[in-house]
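re: the backbone from monday

yeah here it is again, tokenized this time
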């Protein structure tokens, strides 16, 4: 049973969501503010965190910073509908995805399951799904590990899924819709910049190629491709 931490100062809403998630197969608990939310998330007792952006005191953005400084636990942000700035900042800081408020409990549950499916440790897969290598980049899908020039890469679950999708078609363009399904588990929405922001984060973590270019190339109007080191 996946353990979910709901961090929101709206106690009535978080209680309602926790009750629904508990009936839907989750072990859901709540935290009333960012301070407690960060502490409990970093204790390592939860599989995923739902984090509201708008909270008094330590807001969701600052809470996310504290979590990401020490943990790659999946984080789903709750953002105000139409507030693209908070969404982009959250994704840039390492949030796996976002859901605009108000959202239905059913939608939240579906998003949580999508993230967990792509973030889960899969010990059985490691025996049958060997390393995936593209030049100096190596991924182990079964254990969700990645290295570049034998240097470990610290990736969120969403970043790993995105990099894996690109690596499996290295040298070929992968459209954003396909990347959204692979990395986020949902269709790409209109004006949705989530994939662009995750790609930007991956570029930063991968660093430049020996020739100074990025490992991930933008193909305008089509998508992205991971360059082969041939």
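seq for it, each position gets an aa:
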């Amino acid at each position: 049973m996946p353990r979910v931490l709901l961090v929101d100062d709206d106690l009535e809403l978080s209680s309602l969501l926790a009750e629904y998630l508990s009936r839907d197969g989750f072990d859901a608990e709540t935290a009333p503010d960012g301070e407690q939310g960060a502490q409990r998330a970093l204790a390592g007792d939860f599989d995923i965190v739902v984090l509201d952006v708008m909270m008094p005191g330590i807001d969701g953005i600052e809470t996310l910073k504290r979590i990401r400084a020490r943990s790659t636990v999946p984080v789903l942000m709750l953002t105000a509908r139409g507030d693209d700035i908070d969404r982009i900042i959250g994704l840039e800081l390492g949030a796996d995805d976002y859901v605009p408020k108000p959202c239905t409990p059913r939608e939240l549950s579906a998003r949580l399951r999508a993230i967990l499916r792509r973030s889960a440790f899969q010990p059985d897969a490691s025996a049958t799904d060997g390393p995936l290598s593209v030049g100096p980049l190596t991924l182990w899908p079964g254990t969700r590990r990645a290295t570049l020039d034998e240097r470990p890469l610290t990736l969120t679950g969403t970043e790993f899924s995105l990099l894996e999708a690109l690596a499996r078609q290295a040298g070929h363009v992968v459209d954003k819709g396909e990347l959204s399904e692979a990395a986020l588990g949902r269709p790409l929405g209109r004006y949705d910049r989530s994939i662009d922001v995750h790609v930007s984060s991956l570029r930063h973590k991968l660093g430049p190629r020996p020739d100074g270019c990025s490992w991930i190339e933008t193909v305008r109007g089509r998508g992205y491709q991971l360059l082969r080191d041939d």
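The chain has nine helices and twelve strands. The first strand starts at residue 3 and ends at 7.
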